[in-house]
């Protein structure tokens, strides 16, 4: 076997889905995380702390990956600290792997904050890019930990001679417990609470998002894109947007999602209703729901990330991304977005995470 993968962040939405696809294609696959995914018995777990060089050296001493997929990050209080911590994690990882001289390609997953700005200035007036978002858009004149991560990859590639790819998804839809950015599961949990309590399914975001055109990225599509770019000569040393390939309006999809859960939808009513406030006191309600239906996870904070869903749905502009670059190079995978949500909801039910 000539392909050995190291999936960094293998417990997350992007990493767990990628690991499954790599294994299904016969790749020897290692999954690195502080608490590795042990549900996939064919994934070889690597427990390590990316902030600790000694921990990494011990954990990776016998691992010689040809392909490295970085799908993780750590949230901090300020963007300056995001830059320091997330840049250091990538630097530590690649410096330790450099000692083994096995790496042929490194793929880094970032996202649309590359174009929209960091959390502290996210999609604010003065920083709004032209849409559809295109890879050639210049970096913003702002601190951004995505830029720091990219620069660490570029520097290591120059030093060690591997190729690289950068992947910028828009709101990854997939299943993972404890993930920091998880709109699909957040909406499923919110709708389940509305169903159980008789509350209405109230749109939490802005007028621009409600009425505008949008797109998202299914975790399976992102996984296919990562494998494609890392094994296709023409796609190497390039940055790519990656979304499902269709567009939608939340004004339609919100009603469709409400129909799936049999709850009453309420659209944009002239003001924003942040989920972080709406769900602020729902922790105890979720514990009661989990006990009633014998669900696997009774901690609301392990499933719902209202703060990040609010960032996405509260933006003052419509946001969609251009996929021309990947299409021209031969990537043709497509996923219907409405079906992506339904597929996730069905999986959450099968895994006993929602009623």
TrEMBL record:
Gene3D superfamilies: NAD(P)-binding Rossmann-like Domain
Leader sequence residues: none
Spans traversing the lipid bilayer: none
One Pfam family of this chain: PRISE
Domain of life according to the entry: Bacteria
InterPro entries: NAD(P)-bd_dom_sf, PRISE-like_Rossmann-fold
Domain PRISE-like Rossmann-fold: 65-355
Name of the featured protein: NAD-dependent dehydratase
Organism: Pedobacter antarcticus 4BY
Taxonomic classification: Bacteria, Pseudomonadati, Bacteroidota, Sphingobacteriia, Sphingobacteriales
């Amino acid at each position: 076997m000539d392909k050995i993968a190291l999936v960094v962040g293998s417990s997350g939405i992007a990493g767990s889905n990628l690991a499954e696809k790599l294994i299904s294609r016969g790749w020897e696959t290692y999954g690195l995380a502080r608490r590795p995914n042990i549900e996939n018995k064919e994934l070889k777990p690597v427990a390590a702390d990316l902030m600790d060089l000694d921990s990494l050296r011990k954990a990776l001493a016998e691992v010689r990956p040809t392909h490295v997929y970085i799908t993780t990050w750590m949230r901090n209080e300020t963007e300056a600290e995001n830059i320091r911590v997330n840049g250091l994690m990538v630097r530590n990882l690649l410096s330790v792997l450099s000692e083994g001289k096995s790496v042929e390609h490194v793929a880094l997953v970032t996202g649309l904050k590359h174009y929209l700005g960091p959390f502290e200035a996210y999609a604010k007036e003065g920083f709004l890019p032209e849409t559809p978002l295109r890879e050639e858009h210049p970096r913003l004149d702002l601190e951004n930990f995505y830029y720091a991560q990219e620069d660490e990859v570029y520097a290591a590639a120059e030093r060690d001679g591997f190729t690289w790819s950068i992947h910028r998804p828009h709101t990854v839809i997939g299943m993972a417990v404890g993930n920091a950015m998880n709109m699909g599961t957040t909406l499923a949990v919110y709708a389940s609470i509305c169903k159980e309590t008789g509350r209405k399914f109230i749109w939490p975001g802005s007028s621009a998002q409600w009425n505008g055109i949008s797109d998202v990225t299914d975790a399976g599509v992102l996984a296919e894109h990562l494998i494609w770019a890392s094994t296709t000569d023409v796609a190497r040393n390039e940055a790519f947007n990656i979304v499902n390939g269709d567009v939608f309006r939340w004004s339609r999809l919100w009603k469709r999602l409400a129909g799936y859960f049999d709850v009453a939808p309420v659209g944009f009513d002239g003001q924003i209703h942040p989920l972080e406030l709406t769900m602020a006191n729902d922790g105890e309600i979720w514990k009661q729901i989990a006990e009633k239906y014998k669900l696997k996870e009774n901690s609301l904070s392990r499933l719902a990330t209202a703060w990040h869903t609010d960032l996405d749905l509260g933006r003052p502009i419509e946001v969609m991304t251009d996929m021309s670059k990947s299409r021209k190079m031969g990537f043709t995978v497509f996923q219907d977005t409405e079906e992506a949500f339904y597929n996730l909801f069905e999986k959450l039910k099968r895994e006993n995470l929602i009623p």
